[in-house]
User: Fold these one by one.
Assistant:
Number 1:
Amino acid sequence: MHNAVFAAAALDWRFVTFDIVPGGAAAAIGSMAVLDIGGFAVTMPHKEQAAGAVDDVDPAARALRSVNTVVLRDDGTTFGASTDGRGFVDSVVAAGHDVVGMRVVVLGAGGAARAIVDALGRAGADDISIVNRTTATATEAARLSDVAHVGVIDDVAQADLLVNATSIGMGTDDLPLGPAWLRADLVVADIVYHPLETALLRAARHEGAHVVDGLGMLVHQAVLQQELWTGLRPDPAVLRAAAEAELATR
Ligand code: NAP
């Protein structure tokens, strides 16, 4: 996906993957200047260590204690950001829905859900209800925003936006909630993107709801990563086409 943007912009950058040994994120970040690595996209399980290893972080990374993007700045210092949550918000906005003032139900309280709760709060959502199988993690996620709280599934009846941030539906036809909760005036976003049209999105479309698929979050968080690394804002359509092509091979 990132290489498609570098090619489209004729940038002499390459995106390559490294397997980092457990606990090796700090050493990898420390080697950036020597190896002339401009940036990292960090995946689990290294996000927390990366947050502690960089010189400076953005507010989302500080709140989440998690970094998914590292930039080597011109002065040799490193900067860490968490782009997942804002990428999610940007994907909802790009689909034509303003999150300011929205009442939201987030299903799930894992790493992705936490980033989304944090970003929705910063973006001006009015109320964020977190519904999760394990209450303790929902309670912890609710601490990320003043407008967030642990909720119950009935909150969907008052919501403008429903987000599936659980892994339910990944490679299966399972639904994260009963289809009776879906209605035409609800925006339904699924962050699961394999399959691209999850059972939840299919059921939501059937009810006439507005749907936002999980590739939107992946693409828009990558837009933010590219901007941090190169200073250039890429066309989301280039990333989306590359991501769809990659998905088609799975
Ligand atoms: P995670 O930290 O492991 O969290 C998983 C969440 O799903 C937890 O809230 C967990 O509940 C819940 N869950 C899992 N199985 C469940 C079940 N059978 N019944 C009820 N709840 C269940 O994972 P994550 O990193 O947040 O990722 C979640 C999903 O988002 C994954 O499918 C991942 O691929 C996707 N994702 C997409 C993007 C994107 O860009 N679109 C980005 C990141 C992640 P408990 O707390 O009770 O265990």
Note: Residues 121 and 145 are 6 Å apart (CA to CA).
Number 2:
Amino acid sequence: MCGIVGYVGSEAALPVLMAGLTSLTYRGYDSAGVAVLDGSTLQVVKCAGKVADLAARLADSPLSGSTGIGHTRWATHGEPSDVNAHPHIDTRGDFAVVHNGIFENSSDLRERLRAQGCLIRSQTDTELFAHLVSLHYRGDFEAAVKAALAEVKGSFALVVASRFHPSTLIAAKLDTPPLVIGIGAGEMFVSSDISSLMRFTKRVVILEDGEMAVLTPKNVLVDLFRAEPVVGRRRPANERVLSVDWPADIAERGGYPHFMLKEIEEQPRAIRDTLRDRLLEDGRVAIEDFTLAPATVRRARRVIFLSCGTAYHAGLVGQYLFEPILNLPVQVEIASEFRYRQPVIGLDDLVVAISQSGETADTVSAVRRVQERGATVVAITNVIGSTLSRVADHVLFTRAGPEIAVASTKAFTAQLVAVHLLLRYLAQYRPHQHEKLLYQLGLGLRQLDGVVEQVLQRTATIQAFAAQLASHEDVYFIGRNLDEPIAREGSLKLKEISYIHSEAYPAGELKHGTLALLSPGTAVIALATQSDIYEKMVSNIQEVLARKAWVTALVPEDESELEAMGVGTLRVPRVNDLLAPVPNVVTLQLLAYHCGVARGCEIDQPRNLAKSVTVE
Ligand code: M6R
């Protein structure tokens, strides 16, 4: 994915574009660029590297003009380089384009455009769009962009500027990549996300699938470019304006060295917000605008969790919670695999799709597939207006606030809380015998923010352990029951942030092969917080110790058996086993963070990764 920004108004465009790009760097950071119109002169500056590298290039010769577009890239077509950086221009430099997503028919287009005499400078699919607009241009900018849009296939968001129309930008969106228009007074903005607009305007319009928007300083006209039967309909954007009440600095670090640390520390608030007004005094759950009918809940014969990466781990936790309490079979599926299978899906399947961004292409496509087969889809997502929130039949929003660091932290704990809320909602409409357990879990959920505060107070201990772990090159995380998905999440966090090779296993599975990799000094982090299976976990730890591995166990604070055996421990607050994933994962997030810092890694923007993955 990539970050797109655009401005048309009466102020200098460049500072707006650079501020927008700075807050969008989480979306891609291998190259960046801007195009600014000064009258009919189209000026483009772009380079490989980060937004700071672009700023350095612009320092000596800032571009003047009050219309412009900008981009921060995560490479898909063509390596990160100056020439592949966006914006891209047509042969004569009349049109400039920034783009997020993929044109699937780019090979055919490239050949055709070359044959037609276009000078193609980059390896990107984006550049082809600039040539298409130019070839279709007969004096009507909007018509030319629309004609070009009719020739591309795929999933994309883009913005086009033209030196023939210095006070106009045209934006368009198809499928998952998001595009939001910011409405100002005598100025308009366009961006890949809402939070980056908050310092300029709180009034936004979310562009829908198949729509294009024509932005001028005083007006935005939204039109469909690809949808029957209402092509040509023009709807004033002011009929769909949302007011977003977020602080202007929501996309800023606020004094923290990294967004990741800020977001880890925001977790008590994210938990409180996600529960607010939803977990009622009597333990029942009321979710605003949640339309899942009791009859659909009663009819459900199976639950399928669908997601990717960290959100997949939230689904795994959900499986451990839902199966015993709802007495329903539960499947947990990685969306990128599931979407290409031929799964047997029916009307009685309740699919729970989890995605922080709501943009993940694999998750959205998998959801569309199960909907075609009649399943009901509940989305758990953090982003209002995201594709997933619009495609799903019912939506439960996490309220973690914008998550900027690539490594997901507060969105994950908010997802765990949302999974608990959904469990309780479903339990309200299904026969079960777990009232007492649900009552205890309700009490525990209300105290969860305080539990996370306690973990955050242990940062110094975790940091000291991270300093030792940071010199290892291989780490194994093991756990059983609800500790197992959190072992996976801890392992994913560690590899993302510190680039330490790490793997996670169900502890009982080690002896079926992986134990062969353990040698004296190999680091093993053993999660031992599940009381039912604690003794089995102790046995697994002994197996590892017998191979002279360097073991550290995550244990509840009142547990001392392992310490007595000489095992190093990281203590976590004692909570109900079913809530333990939350304090456990916060501990492992801090561990990964401090390992990454100790190793001098790029914390918020790990190499090769982007915040959300809008390509397959
Ligand atoms: O936006 P999503 O929750 O759908 O994203 C899914 C994964 O790409 C994401 O969780 C990824 O694994 C994170 N970088 C993990 O920290």
Note: Residues 308-311, 355-357, 360, 363, 406-408, 492, 496, 612-613 surround 5-amino-5-deoxy-1-O-phosphono-D-mannitol (CB under 6 Å).
